[in-house]
Amino acid sequence: MSWFIVFSAFSLAATYGLLAIGISLTWASLGMLNLAQGFTFAVSGYGAWTMSGVTTHPVAVMGAGLAAGATCGVVVSLLAFVPLHDRPNFQVRSLVVTLAISLIGTQLLQQHYGPQVKPLPKLFGDGKLELSGAVLTSDKTGAIVVATVVLATLVIWMRISRRGVQLRAMMQDPQGAALVGVSIRTTAVMVMAGTGALAGLASVLLAQTYFVSPQSGAQPLTKGLVIALLGGLGSISGAVIAAIMVGFTEALTADHLGGQYVLITQFALVIVVLLFRPRGIGGLFDEISE
Fold it and tell me: Which terminus of the chain, N or C, has fewer Cβ atoms within 10 Å?
């Protein structure tokens, strides 16, 4: 296995893992599968692209993507969670609403920005590193470093901060958390803003290799759902392991078979893992439910 494949695998795992952890946290804490996460991804890309027309400073462009993602996450929570969470069949209702938000939002983006793809500036420069004959580009290196730092910060925040403890309580027992004074609606808005920001970061990082378009969030959403399911809904560590597995599967498949077989091998991986471990790799949510 070449260093290029290893490097590509970790780069893909870093970006897709951000989306998967957001999907997993939303499900575990709010009981909602957010199908509007792909739309949030696309909105974040356009937010970063708009800022790049004002300044190409990496912090400003990345910050605009995160802010756009967080704002979109809050809007989704106000439309799909706050008015529905205490009603019957909430999970189905929220699934339909988030899907509707995604479809309508994608059409609005296409009408406003057009179907043409938009490039983002190279936030990490054009540097290259040659290792054992493989060329490692700065965009992939930057994606791995930034995503790793953000995920480590998220884990630490969840362990030591008051809000993080409240979120963990919601993940373990939402009704019990509400009885001890944790506001479900406030926590929901916080969770959706945070997971939206994660989607925004993933959008900016992935746009270093690809481009921004109205449909740019469709494939990352699919990969995020695959990773979240494979890792076990609610488990951050499981999502990280699953992201690495999916990243290596995609890199190896693209190198040896071709890009058209990537989704086939990834879904085959999910089927094989779930046959032996139905809860997923982490399986936090199902274990608690039992």
Answer: C
Q: Specify if 120 maps to a domain.
A: yes
Q: Evaluate the CA torsion angle 15, 269, 233, 231 in order and state its sign.
A: negative
The domain containing residue 14 runs over which residues?
3-214
* Residues 90/32, Cβ–Cβ less than 8 Å: yes
Please give the Cα distance from 278 to 134 (Å, whole number). Answer: 38
In a domain, 268, yes or no: no
Give the chain's domain count.
Answer: 1
- For the chain, the distance separating the N- and C-terminal CA atoms, rounded to the nearest angstrom, is 41
User: Over its length of 290 residues, how does the chain's per-residue pLDDT go in tens digits?
Assistant: 566 777 778 888 888 888 888 888 888 888 888 999 999 999 999 999 999 989 888 899 999 999 999 999 999 999 999 888 888 888 899 999 999 999 999 999 999 998 888 888 888 877 776 666 666 777 788 888 888 898 889 888 888 888 888 888 777 777 777 777 778 888 888 889 999 999 999 999 888 777 888 988 888 888 888 888 888 877 788 888 888 888 888 888 887 888 788 888 888 888 888 888 888 887 654 444 44
Domain presence at residue 7 = yes
In a domain, 80, yes or no: yes
Helices (H), 114-214: 138-160, 162-172, 174-179, 184-206
Please report which residue ranges of the chain form alpha helices under DSSP H. 3-30, 37-52, 58-80, 90-113, 138-160, 162-172, 174-179, 184-206, 218-231, 236-256, 262-276, 284-289
